[in-house]
């Protein structure tokens, strides 16, 4: 699932950078903003985070002229701000955690945060504690494992499938796109970004 999420991030970037026309490229970004908004309403936070990660990556975020066209739309600007606010990493993803706490199944949480929480609990807490009465004896640190079990219980809580109509052609297309050889080299992606929108471009091209 982690590999697929990573591929999704880079695939989104490729769909944007594969469009040489600036106005069409802006439309592609608008499309992904809209998908992110749908994901928010479906409580599909894993895909929402992937979209945010792609749009916020250096190769996409630097497309200033493209973004200028995108943000002319108040609707898309509002949707983008809302999804960014939910996916904000500030205060240990406080906004996202609040949304997740209030979410009802079906819901697809962002797996990356669970992995971070598990790693933090595992490495930040010893597996055993020394007895205060008998220093030479060690006891299992139950507090650590109780906290870990709560994280795992929350993951299990959301193991409820969505009741969405399956469109097989769309599913096959998406699986194909996510399993094909996707460019994941950040430097090459940035180079492609410079090719479609160089640092010095006549702003008049977006007014035409």
Automatic annotation (TrEMBL):
InterPro entries: Ras-like_GEF (IPR008937), Ras_GEF_dom_sf (IPR023578), RASGEF_cat_dom (IPR001895), RASGEF_cat_dom_sf (IPR036964)
Superkingdom of source: Eukaryota
GO cellular component, one term: plasma membrane
Keyword Hydrolase among record annotations: no
Gene3D superfamilies: Ras guanine-nucleotide exchange factors catalytic domain
Pfam family for this entry, one: RasGEF
GO biological process: Ras protein signal transduction
Residue ranges of every copy of the Ras-GEF domain listed in the record: 1-199
An example Gene Ontology molecular-function term: guanyl-nucleotide exchange factor activity
Keywords: Guanine-nucleotide releasing factor
UniProt-listed PANTHER family: BUD SITE SELECTION PROTEIN 5, GUANINE NUCLEOTIDE EXCHANGE FACTOR
Designated name of the protein: Ras-GEF domain-containing protein
Organism in which the protein naturally occurs: Phycomyces blakesleeanus (strain ATCC 8743b / DSM 1359 / FGSC 10004 / NBRC 33097 / NRRL 1555)
């Amino acid at each position: 699932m982690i590999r697929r999420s990573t591929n999704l991030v880079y695939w989104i970037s490729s769909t944007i950078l594969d469009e040489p026309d600036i106005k069409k490229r802006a439309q592609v970004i608008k499309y992904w903003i809209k998908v992110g908004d749908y994901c928010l309403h479906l409580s599909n936070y894993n895909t929402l985070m992937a979209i945010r990660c792609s749009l916020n990556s250096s190769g996409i975020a630097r497309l200033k002229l493209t973004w200028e066209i995108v943000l002319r739309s108040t609707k898309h600007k509002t949707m983008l701000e809302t999804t960014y606010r939910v996916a904000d990493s500030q205060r240990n993803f406080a906004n996202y955690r609040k949304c997740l706490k209030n979410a009802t199944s079906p819901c697809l949480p962002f797996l990356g945060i669970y992995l971070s929480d598990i790693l933090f609990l595992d490495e930040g807490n010893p597996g055993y504690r020394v007895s205060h009465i008998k220093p030479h004896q060690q006891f299992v640190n139950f507090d650590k494992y109780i906290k870990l079990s709560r994280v795992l219980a929350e993951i299990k809580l959301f193991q409820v499938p969505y009741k969405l109509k399956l469109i097989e052609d769309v599913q096959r297309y998406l699986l194909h796109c996510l399993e094909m050889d996707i460019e994941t080299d950040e430097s090459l992606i940035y180079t492609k970004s410079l090719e479609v929108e160089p640092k010095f471009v006549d702003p008049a091209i977006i007014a035409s």
